[in-house]
């Protein structure tokens, strides 16, 4: 599975260059177009007309937008991105990004999250809203303080978080495409969790679940030509086990499923959102309904 339109959602921090660079890298690997998107949130000034005057507020907003445009133009130039591929929007972050993605047929949206501080104030709860409503794949890429340049390392180890349902196929295909483009290896995990998140009632039942998952892994490897791919069955909280495995095994990116607007179960919803917050590596949520 390849992408045709990649968008990087840019904030005003020094980490934006890494987010844009990752988007540009993936666009090049897919021979896709790439654009930079920034949303200026609506501002509300209590009694502002009396305190500052309408003209002063208008001038401030105009200057702010000019500064944003200048910063994005410089970023685009550094990464050899056309200035025509810059969008500055006004409104609510999640809603504007979702609408833009729909209007311009974006199939991969790249967001940034600082490695130590989580998703951060610009996206915050917006990431969850975008995940649940945008009909696109979403990559949450981790940024670091000591790397403000435009070079991002290729992915070398991909962790494929599996659930054994037919809708998982797009996630597997995307992992294979990403691995081929980066000359990377794939590892797979499946997490055995109790019914509705409760503890598994007995050791014998746990054993049955593990054996069933191991058999399903064998079938899956045969169907998707993944015979030599390392796979492991874990037991416990799904998002915690996946993020811990990724950290322990030095994985660069976790691939999981996302339902977008639809209510299909999987490693979806709260689990994927939890991975966005918990994982120390990048997380790519593949929309299985697209």
Compile the SSE list and pairings.
Blueprint: E1 5-9, H1 16-30, E2 33-41, H2 48-51, H3 54-78, E3 86-91, H4 93-103, E4 108-114, H5 126-133, E5 137-143, E6 157-161, H6 169-182, E7 185-192, H7 203-223, E8 230-235, H8 238-248, E9 253-258, H9 270-278, E10 282-287
Parallel strand pairs: 1-2, 1-4, 2-3, 4-5, 6-7, 6-9, 7-8, 9-10
Antiparallel strand pairs: 5-10
Helix pairs in contact: 4-5, 8-9
In CATH terms, the superfamily of the largest domain is HUPs
- The shape, in one word, is elongated
The N- to C-terminal Cα distance equals: 11 Å
Read across the widest sheet, the strand sequence of neighbours is 3-2-1-4-5-10-9-6-7-8
From the 3D coordinates, which CATH architecture of the largest domain would you assign? Answer: 3-Layer(aba) Sandwich
Helical coverage, percent range: 40-55%
Beta-strand share of residues: 15-25%
Structural commentary:
By secondary structure, this protein is an alpha/beta fold. It folds into two domains: 150 residues, HUPs (Rossmann fold, 3-Layer(aba) Sandwich), CATH 3.40.50.620; 138 residues, Rossmann fold (3-Layer(aba) Sandwich), CATH 3.40.50.620. Helices cover 41% and strands 22% of the residues. The protein is built from nine helices and ten strands. It has a ten-stranded mixed β-sheet, with helices on both faces. α4 runs parallel beside α5 and α8 packs parallel to α9. It is elongated.
């Amino acid at each position: 599975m390849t992408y045709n339109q990649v968008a990087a959602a840019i904030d005003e921090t020094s980490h934006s260059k890494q987010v844009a660079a990752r988007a540009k890298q993936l666009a090049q690997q897919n021979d896709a177009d790439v654009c930079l998107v920034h949303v200026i949130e609506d501002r509300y000034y209590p009694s502002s007309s009396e305190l500052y005057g309408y003209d002063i507020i208008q001038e401030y907003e105009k200057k702010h937008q000019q500064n944003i445009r200048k910063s994005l133009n410089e970023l685009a130039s550094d990464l050899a991105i056309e200035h025509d591929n810059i969008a500055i929007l006004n409104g609510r972050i999640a809603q504007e990004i979702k609408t833009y993605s729909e209007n311009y047929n974006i199939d991969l949206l790249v967001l940034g999250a600082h490695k130590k501080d989580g998703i951060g104030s610009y996206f915050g709860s917006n990431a969850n809203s975008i995940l649940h409503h945008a009909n696109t794949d979403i990559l949450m890429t981790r940024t670091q303080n000591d790397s403000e340049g435009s070079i991002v390392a290729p992915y070398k180890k991909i962790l494929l978080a599996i659930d054994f349902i037919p809708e998982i196929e797009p996630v597997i295909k995307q992992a294979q495409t990403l691995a081929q483009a980066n000359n990377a290896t794939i590892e797979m995990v499946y997490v055995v969790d109790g019914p509705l998140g409760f503890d598994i009632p007995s050791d014998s039942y746990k054993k049955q679940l593990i054996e069933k998952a191991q058999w399903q892994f064998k079938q899956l490897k045969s169907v998707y030509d993944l015979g030599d791919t390392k796979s492991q069955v874990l037991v416990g909280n799904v998002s915690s086990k996946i993020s811990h495995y990724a950290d322990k095994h030095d994985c660069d990116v976790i691939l999981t499923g996302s339902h977008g607007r639809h209510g299909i179960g999987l490693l979806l919803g709260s689990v994927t959102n939890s991975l966005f917050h918990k994982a120390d590596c990048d997380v790519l949520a593949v929309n299985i309904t697209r």
